[in-house]
Specification:
Layout: E1 13-15, E2 18-27, E3 30-39, E4 52-56, E5 64-73, E6 76-80, E7 97-101, E8 110-112, H1 116-134, E9 141-145, H2 151-159, E10 164-168, H3 172-177, H4 183-192, H5 200-209, E11 219-220, H6 227-238, E12 247-251, H7 259-269, E13 276-280, H8 322-325, E14 330-333
Parallel strand pairs: 9-10, 9-12, 10-11, 12-13, 13-14
Antiparallel strand pairs: 1-8, 2-3, 2-7, 3-6, 4-5, 4-7, 5-6
Length: 338
């Protein structure tokens, strides 16, 4: 039995409304914006008195001037250069300059869970990094195990456009939700901060955060542990019972399994290829010697290190090092690939 299957509530990310606008005037330390648009980025602070503006001239080498915000009223932000070199704008051919606020969010934070806009870019970044580190050839066949909604596979398809990349995940949550969008849950979060998801700024935020169905390709409901399941992956994912799979990559699956289950999974994936790679959330040495961790996952180091705490009282826990448990496989830390 797996240790734990996290659901969507385990992941939370904050989004705010970001002002991206052209400057139409900068006089007497008052910046007037026009043409504001809406974008989002996780975990940015609000625009507030005391924040800073980064004023940069377009079409020029990197040259920025920072000003402290002393007042905000609509699209007018009053700034104080606070003794820094005076700002001498070099206007572009349209007679305009661009201001990029360093702290730019103006609305209440909308906190969302496991949604595409929050987590797919992270999965894509890990995939692109792994492609380069492992030297995967464009055209290789890749199998991503435990890919939830296929977001890591999307990153590999972007990095390796000639490759066939197939995702599997046997969780009931992933199989049920892969074809659905996120309108309901995002709308609930927008409503929770006092905005209307059907109009005004709330509707703009909903439009930005929605990105179609959660999964862009079918996620196979196969674990690959049996001959029958491996045949189904080859047949339904790669088009042939004789299909060659060049790489198997498990996506943070091992920390949720018992040691014996990790060995079984590794052995089964070796039936596909010798190139078996595991992306894992590793244990950090700072926690050595402390009480049993929460959540109670299969925490191990990658490389030398002992997990000197009470996980060894668990009958399923046999070693504190992934390389000791699965010496034939390769391991990468989620943190290293961010």
């Amino acid at each position: 039995m797996p240790i734990l299957t996290p659901d969507a509530s385990f992941f939370r990310t904050q989004y705010r409304r970001k002002l991206v606008a052209r400057v139409i005037s900068l006089a007497d330390q008052v910046v007037t914006f026009s043409g504001a648009t809406l974008t989002t980025t996780p975990m940015w602070p609000e625009v507030r008195i005391g924040g800073e503006l980064d004023v940069q001239t377009p079409g020029e080498p990197r040259r920025s001037h920072y000003a402290r915000i002393t007042g905000i009223a609509g699209d007018v932000i009053t700034v104080d250069m606070r003794g820094k070199p005076p700002f001498v704008p070099i206007f572009d051919e349209d007679g305009e300059i661009i201001v990029t606020p360093r702290v730019t969010y103006r609305s209440p934070p909308v906190t969302v869970g496991f949604v595409r806009r929050a987590f797919q870019p992270r999965a894509r970044g890990r995939a692109i990094a792994l492609s380069a580190i492992l030297g995967i050839t464009d055209g290789d066949n890749l199998l991503i195990v435990g890919d939830t909604l296929g977001w890591t596979a999307e990153g590999f398809r972007q990095a390796l456009p000639a490759s066939t990349v197939v995702s599997t995940d046997t969780s009931a949550w992933a199989q049920f939700n892969q074809g659905l969008d996120e309108t309901v849950e995002i709308s609930e979060e927008i409503t929770a901060v006092g905005l209307d998801p059907l109009s005004g700024e709330g509707a703009e935020i909903l439009d930005v955060l929605l990105d179609g169905p959660r999964a862009k390709a079918t996620i196979l409901d196969e674990d690959g542990l049996s001959n029958g399941s491996r045949g189904a992956i080859r047949r339904n994912g790669f088009g042939s019972n004789q299909a060659v799979i060049d790489w198997v990559i498990t996506d943070d699956v091992l920390p949720l399994l018992f040691d014996s289950e990790c060995i079984d999974l590794s052995t089964a994936m070796a039936e596909f290829t010798v190139n078996v790679v595991h992306v894992v959330t590793p244990y950090f040495s700072v926690f050595d010697g402390l009480v049993e961790p929460d959540p109670l996952w299969n925490w191990k180091h990658i490389g030398p290190g002992e997990v000197n705490q009470t996980l060894f009282d668990q009958p399923w826990y046999t070693t504190s090092n992934w390389l000791d448990l699965l010496p034939e496989d390769q391991f990468f830390s989620v943190q290293r690939l961010r």
